[in-house]
Amino acid sequence: MKEFKIKTVDLSLFYGSKMALNSISMDIPQKQVTALIGPSGCGKSTYLRTLNRMNDLIPGVRITGEVQVDGFNIYDKNVDSVNLRKQVGMVFQKSNPFAKSIFENVAYGPKINGTHDHKKLKEIVELSLQRAAIWDEVKDRLHDSALGLSGGQQQRLCIARTLAVDPEIILMDEPASALDPISTSKIEELIYVLKENYTIIIVTHNMQQAARVSDNTGFFYLGELIEYGKTKKIFTGPDKKQTEDYITGRFG
Amino acid sequence: MSVVLIIAIIIIMLVIIIIGGKDQLSWKFLSEFPQEGMTKGGIFPAIYGTALMVIIMSLAAVPFGVITALYLTEYAKETSWIAKGVQFAVRTLSMVPSIIFGLFGLGFFIKFVGGGLDKVFSGGQLIWAQPNILWASLTMALLTLPVVIVSVEESIRAVPRDLREASLALGATKWQTIRKVVLSGSKSGILTGTILAVSRGAGEVAPILFTGAAYYLASLPHSLSDQFMSLGYHIYIMSTQSVNVDQTLPIQFATTLVLLLLTFTLNFVAVIIRSRLRRAH
What is the pTM of this model? Predict the structure, then answer.
């Protein structure tokens, strides 16, 4: 049943005794963009981070339920979370390039995976930077520090870095919230192109962005998934009143 | 007011030392052996001995210090009793008077380890169970270990958390993240810690008093089982036990000046690196 790339089944998450996610069940289709919206602190980012087990890093976190990627529960005892993250990449809210050169940033992932042949690395780096729509801007300064790039460029570099590992799924946690409108629209264009080859899940505060960019949308509130469906439907004719109130700005 | 007083005292000390020693300072002074009972000649073997000792000391203290700092910051849970124990040990170690290190070096390294080595490898012949540059360097390494640990710890903690997350999210293991992101980002801190340790080690005398420093050696140390001369010890001996204290006075001043310049420069360099490191973050 490989219809859905990711499927969460009654997923709940606890910080100690406090429940942060309440029994979330979502089916996320392949090679589409799924947006997670909702007010601050309602669990969207927490949910996103369960999909690549980044929550494992926080002490005291407990998960019940399942997260299935390609049908396998990634929280199963036998699953290696390190390998998982090569399949499920993540782009963070605030861009976080390493204090290394642009080239070394993108080559980081492949090198970790054992690729050391310089010719191969050059190919991967060029391809990833092209796919992230930033190749033309950096091709002449690959060995300059990544920290010299602008905010928008750094974020696209981080996307290139994630693409270099060739994941099947890309998680994006408010990737454009720290960026100016022009950089934001560049990232949105990029997402539109990337979805041809990757399954993308994006957390966003910006409802217009969700409406523009995504195929499916899930509305989170206070740790619960209130409604989930095709973006068009959520934004034009949602089933739940809470969803409608949020979309129309009555609270947020 | 007290700041002015302290600065005044330091300036007076420096002026006395510089006036007393500047005439004696010359390239010859730095490159020759002492002659005629320390009343003439240079201090080269003391410079060489000090340098060799701090190198061996660093080879011992820095890796061990980095590993400890890594353990404390990356592996130990903050509240675990092991972590608390190590933190306590490091703090205590930094407060121990330096003469105690000397006694420890004598009892542990020379008598116990050295004695054991002699029993096992040379059938009782006295080779390792006596003062030498190896034991002195290891003793000094114990004294400077807290300095290294604290400095490295500080720079590891300065590496932002989101860089570690970025690395892990790309499918790196914890150890890969430590090697490629944390340690490579802490290079300045490791360097600062090393320089501070070297500066401290170059100047301390008590730990090497019983463990390896010698008053006068006709030749430079060739192996780890040789004794060595050191700047700090040289000053002490000349000012307390030389036959003609007046004649050696200019040499005492000059040696003090050399040691001070060395320590000041090292500390200064460490401070610059540290402030550059802080500004970069």
Answer: 0.83
User: Which residues have CB under 8 Å from B136's CB, separation 6+?
Assistant: B53, B105, B207, B208, B211, B212, B213, B228
Spatial contact of B138 and B105, defined as CB atoms under 8 Å apart: yes
Q: pLDDT category, B23, cuts 50, 70, 90?
A: confident
How far apart (Å, rounded) are the C-alpha atoms in residues A170 and A163?
A: 8
Q: Which burial class, exposed, middle or buried, applies to A216 when counting CB atoms under 10 A from its CB (0-12, 13-18, 19+)?
A: buried
Q: Which tokens hold the place of B11?
A: 């300036």
Report the C-alpha gap between B10 and B4 in whole angstroms: 10
**Contacts of residue B172 in chain A, CB cutoff 8 Å?**
82, 108, 112
pLDDT at B266: 86
Query: CA A120, CA A6: separation in Å to the nearest integer?
Result: 31
Contact B259, B202 (CB under 8 A): yes
Name the 3-class secondary structure at B174: helix
Give residue B8's pLDDT. Answer: 92
Q: What angle do CA B102, B104, B110 make, to 5 degrees?
A: 90
**Residue B174: count of CB within 10 angstroms of its CB:** 15
ipTM: 0.91
Cβ proximity of B113 and B219 under 8 Å: no
Q: Which residue carries 């973006």 as its tokens? A: A231
Closest partner CB to A92 (pick from B162, B172, B176) = B162
Q: CB-side exposure of A85: number of CA atoms within 13 Å?
A: 28
Q: How far apart are CA B141 and CA A116, in angstroms?
A: 38
Contacts of B181 in chain A (CB under 8 A): 98
Q: How far is residue A117's CA from residue A251's CA, in Å, rounded to a whole number?
A: 54
